[in-house]
Design goal:
single chain; 18 helices; 16-stranded antiparallel beta sheet
Length: 473
Amino acid sequence: MRAMRVAVVVALASLTVALAGCGSADVGSGPPSSAGSLTAGALVYWQTVSDPGSAQWQRVDDLLGRFPDGDKWIAELKRKLADEGVSWEQDVKPALGDVVDVAVYPSASGGSPAVVALTNSPDRDKLRALVDKLNAKDGGKQVVMRNVGDWAAISDKESSLDAALKGTSGRSLADDDAFKSGMAKLPDDALTRIYADPAQLVEQAGSMEPQAKQALSMFGLDKLDFAGAWAKAKNEGAELAFSLSGEGAEKLLGATDEYSSALLDKVPADAFAFYTLRGDGLRQQLQQLESSPLLAMGLRQFEREYGIDADEVASLFEGETAIYLRKGSPIPEITILFDSDDPAQAKATVDRLVRVVEPHLEGVQLTTGVVGNVVVLSTARGAIRDLENPTETLGDSPRFKDALEAGGAPDQYTGLLYVDLQDAIDVILGYAGASGEQVPAEVSRNLAPLKTLVAYGAKDGAVVRAHAFVQID
């Protein structure tokens, strides 16, 4: 699709100048939007700030400068622009607007969707010249451009522009209540943000392949009012997040009510990774799988072959479950904690799982036990002892607290992931070296600035959100 190709080139150009660090300015109450020039009913609306003087791109510039090869990456991006036959200074910079929007609409004929890129270019002649250069280099089918008020729209064919652009009558995308409500759930100071209409996407998938619609509906995608995502540069790192709204949000994610981990204070302080979840919705998801005759048949076959009852396994996760990793030899320690109202029954289920799994784990012996109401499954023989005689725990660790604060993690969540990236990278590189694989110096030196990863879920009524934050030194 030529429109997508042009959109990628324009976005790449904006990335190049932003990483080069040109000027500084703030994005006001929110970036301009082309939604008023688009017709209602978009499957996807994707907006990216392309003003190199914006606060977001200045933060990107700062973050990139923390990597040893940041300048090298900039040079590579500029080379890619040159490969397209265009120059940043002469062709791209004068043609860029404040934002690049990409909108996707269903095809009236049932074929490929219509994809349109829009930008509020200050110099339409320069933008036209850029499009002409790209067309001349590509040859064959040409992309087309149309001016619409303050915006210039680019696509692969005129019919796509006709499908996406609002005419003199009808509602615009900006007037669509679902779109307005969805965009209000996305931060207006993000570097890039995406709005999607999940129900309409499911309908489009179903029109092409009925089985696909059935599978997507099974997981509640057709009952989502809104799906969105965004990426944002912050002073201490980078954030990636998505948001779902509607009846299908909990069904899809199995989201529980928010909670604070009761198992965190049992985890040793030297754990370099920790994940907690509550599987209240797992049994509901299992029931959804069983409602499909084909999937139910496969599930029953699995149960007969391995002697494991899927409902019993699902019951292990009805309370809080926590997983943590510690450095170890010859492999890292992996320990799973199940908080249970019936630890004896839960341990019996875990023991059955071990008998099935352990023969397939070459050289790894699993340990099970019970500490209070917590059932323990671990690759380390000393895990039970360490849990029974805790000294300092991860919840008291300054590095853990600092990571959660940097990532904006709340006191309560629907799930929480923490990874000390430096320890995790050391483990990965160490095992790579032990296996005889040589890690390129370029890779290892550019992993050094990565400090921690924190991800968490949050819930507000029918809105479910997930955030991930990478802390960069």
